[in-house]
Amino acid sequence: MSTVSDWVAIGRLDDIPRRGARCVNSPLGRIAVFRTMDDKVFATEDRCPHKGGPLSQGIVHGGSVTCPLHNQVIALDTGLVQGPDEGQVRTFPVRVGAEGALELLIERASAYAMAAE
After folding, report:
1. To the nearest 10°, the Cα dihedral for 38, 92, 95, 61?
2. DSSP category for residue 116
3. N or C, which end of the chain is more exposed by having fewer CB within 10 Å?
């Protein structure tokens, strides 16, 4: 099955405080978009792999977020839980476009591929 990828506008970089997050509802579920102190942006599913805690409510530090429920630390670039814990959350491509616009890459099955099935 082939996929179609679209960059979708989801807001502005200035909508997210430094070391904070905002959520976006998408066909892929609830996505947390994080902004680090040095204005890097990352997107992960908004659900800790341990107990489903809302990562968007966690503490952003460096390139990681700490889950507000049980203090699991998750790398924002890979989604991997940092040791000694284990697990991973799904990450999504996100970028800062023209004039500070935030864009999220959404992949979906193409209509042609779905019709062929």
Report:
1. -10
2. H
3. C
Residue whose pair of structure tokens reads 């905002």 in the numeric block: 22
Considering the entire predicted model, what is its pTM? 0.87
Distance CA 81, CA 11 (A): 27
The secondary element (H helix, E strand) that includes residue 114 is: helix 111-116
Residue 21 host element (H or E)? strand 20-26
Q: If you ran DSSP here, which 8-state letter would residue 81 be given?
A: B
Mean pLDDT of the chain: 89
| CB count in 10 Å sphere of residue 9 | 10
Q: What is the mean pLDDT of residues 42-66?
A: 96
Task: Round to whole Å and give the CA distance between 114 and 16.
Answer: 36
Q: Of 55, 7, 51, which Cα lies nearest the Cα of 31?
A: 55
